[in-house]
Structure formats: structure tokens, C-alpha cells
Amino acid sequence: RLHRLPYWLAHFLGYRKSTDEGGFTTRDHHHSTILFWSFIGEFVSLIIVEAIFMNIGGELERRDAPYIFPAFSASAILLFNTIDSPLATPRPFVFGHFFCAVIGVAIPKLFLLNPNGEEYLWLAGALACSIATAFMRFTNTIHPPAGATALLPSINKQVQGLDWWYIPAVLLMSIVMLVTALLIDNIQRRYPEYWWTPL
Questions:
Q1: Among 2, 28, 53, 156, which is 20 to 30 Å from 109 by CA?
Q2: Domain for residue 20, yes or no?
Q3: CB pairs under 8 A, 24+ apart, for 4-13?
Q4: SS3 assignment, position 120
């Protein structure tokens, strides 16, 4: 339904009137073009996320939220280098990180109900990552970097301090990076090839 939007907007959401317009996929472009735009995209997206979280106020600042979670550097590689991969499309990127954040927070909390639960957080991390992977497979939202999103609340004290605020922080990072990818990947290429499922 993107064709119903003004074309300038639909273009930056991945819509093309015809295959003759160019900018279709990574396979259609010269190596130097991919190298240039992937470098620009990764740099700009990570800088924007870090700038937002360095200057964010409220609860996330009070809880000393990290400027960026490591999984998003791996996501940036997918979003700007392999834009035609199903793993880099918006659905698995956003929902993969979201599901993994929820599971990543919930599993250690269950372990910590036990007075000695902190001794077994290493096990909680492995379990959270495994459950999150199975859930992503079940919902068809596989995004490999999101596995680190599930693991982090079990192994990082700073992230543990965020508690349930970890989930909106992950969502905010996902949305900012997705918007950046839509802008930069559609300058000379096409992203995404599909939003929900392949045609």
C-alpha cells in the first residue's frame, strides 16, 4: 500500500514504481557503492543513537543507561551491508530485539527469585538466549544480533540496573536505527525489499 503515499515518502520506505528505477538491492551495485553507503550508514546510525542516549533525561538517565548496547553494532552491519537479506528487514530487526529484550529481562528475574540466584546468572544468560532464539524462530523474526540483546541482562550489571526500562531503551535504539537505515539505504539503493513477509 506504499504506492498510496506521496512518492518522495514511499521512496524512502522502499517503494519503487518499476525495476527500471535502479537502487534495488545490494547485488545490483558496485562494491565501492556498497562500501561507501555501508560506512556512512553505520557511522551515522551509531552516532545518532549514542547522541540521543548521552543527552536523554528521565528514568534512563537516572538508571545510568549505556550509550548503546553492543548488539546494535552487529545490527548496523546487517542494516547497511546486507540490506537485501531477510535478516535485515524491519520485522525481524525490530521484533527480534523487542522479544529478546523481554525474554532477556524476564529470565534473570526468575532466577533472582531464589536467594542464591545470582550465582546462576551465567545459566540464566544461556537459557535466555536459547529461549529467545526459539521464540524468534517461532515468530519468524530471526535477527542474529538480537541474541546478544537477550544475553546482556544476565551478564552486565549496568543493564541489570535498568530493570524493565531495558525494553523501551532497546525499542528506542531499534526505531532510531531503522529510520536512519530507511533514509540512507534508499539514497542509491533500496531498503527494505519487504516490510513483513516476502511477496
A1: 53
A2: no
A3: 11/186, 12/182, 12/183, 12/186, 13/182, 13/186, 13/195
A4: helix
Q: Which residue has the cell 547485488?
A: 27
| Residue corresponding to grid cell 549505556 | 66
Alpha helices in the chain (DSSP H): 7-11, 31-55, 58-62, 71-81, 90-111, 121-139, 146-155, 157-162, 166-188
Tell me the three state secondary structure of residue 152: helix
pLDDT given for residue 93 in this prediction:
97
CA-closest candidate to residue 9, choices 177, 176, 183, 174: 183
Distance from C-alpha of 69 to C-alpha of 136, rounded to nearest angstrom: 19
Query: Phi and psi dihedrals of 18, rounded to 5?
Result: -155, 165
The tally of domains found in the chain comes to: 1
* C-beta of residue 147 within 8 angstroms of C-beta of residue 97: no
The full length of the chain comes to 199
Confirm whether 162 is domain-assigned.
Answer: yes
Cis peptide before 192 (omega within 30 of 0): yes
Q: Is 168 inside any structural domain?
A: yes
The pLDDT, as a whole number, for residue 46 is: 97
Question: Is-contact 190 23, C-beta < 8 A?
Answer: yes
**Which residues form the domain of 41?**
29-188
Confidence (pLDDT) at 58: 79
Nine-digit cell at 67?
550509550
One-letter amino acid identity for 68? Answer: I
- Does residue 167 have a pLDDT over 90? yes
Whether 194 is covered by a domain: the verdict is no
